[in-house]
């Protein structure tokens, strides 16, 4: 029997965890480090931080938050959001992330997935796919920038 795994994903905007529906009506629900520790002690198998504001605002990687969190976790930490380069990945891994998640950059520069996998190992590179169902075209399409920009890339492609 396949073991079920619990992997909470915390959307982080401007250094705070937020909750919304389809990236809209976001409300602040807490400090990312505190919530990470909560999931750590309550039995989560892994944890994901997605910085949903970096790609839009261009702010620095949330390295301090990653480092403070990683020092206290005993579960793997995946970080995504606004990762554009191999240098971004290096910084996140050096500050305690166990894995990185690519989204907008995976669509814009798909070769980054291969380059990162070759440099850091495929075990720590993953992609996140945000999607939108287009009723007129009767299919799911990838979105970028925290679900705000629709692409012409079909999810299953």
Automatic annotation (TrEMBL):
Gene Ontology BP terms: L-histidine biosynthetic process
GO MF annotation: an example: lyase activity
Protein name, entry field: Imidazole glycerol phosphate synthase subunit HisF
EC numbers, comma separated: 4.1.3.-
Family listed: Belongs to the HisA/HisF family.
Signal peptide interval: none
Protein species of origin: Staphylococcus saccharolyticus
Gene3D superfamilies, A to Z: Aldolase class I
Organismal lineage: Bacteria, Bacillati, Bacillota, Bacilli, Bacillales
Gene it is expressed from: hisF
Keywords: Amino-acid biosynthesis, Histidine biosynthesis, Lyase
Pathway info: Amino-acid biosynthesis
Top-level lineage group: Bacteria
């Amino acid at each position: 029997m396949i073991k079920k795994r619990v992997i909470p994903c915390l959307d982080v905007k401007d250094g705070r965890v937020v909750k919304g529906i389809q990236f809209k009506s976001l409300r602040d629900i807490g400090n990312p480090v505190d919530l990470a520790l909560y999931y750590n002690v309550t039995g989560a198998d892994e944890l994901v931080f997605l910085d949903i504001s970096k790609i839009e605002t261009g702010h620095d990687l949330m390295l301090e938050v990653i480092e403070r969190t990683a020092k206290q976790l005993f579960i793997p930490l995946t970080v995504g959001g606004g990762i554009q380069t191999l240098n971004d990945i290096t910084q996140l891994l050096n500050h305690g992330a166990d894995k990185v998640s690519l989204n907008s950059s995976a669509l814009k520069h798909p070769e980054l997935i291969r380059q990162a996998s070759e440099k850091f190992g495929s075990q720590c590179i993953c992609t996140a796919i945000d999607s939108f169902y287009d009723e007129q075209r009767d299919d799911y399409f990838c979105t970028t920038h925290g679900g705000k920009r629709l692409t012409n890339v079909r999810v299953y492609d």
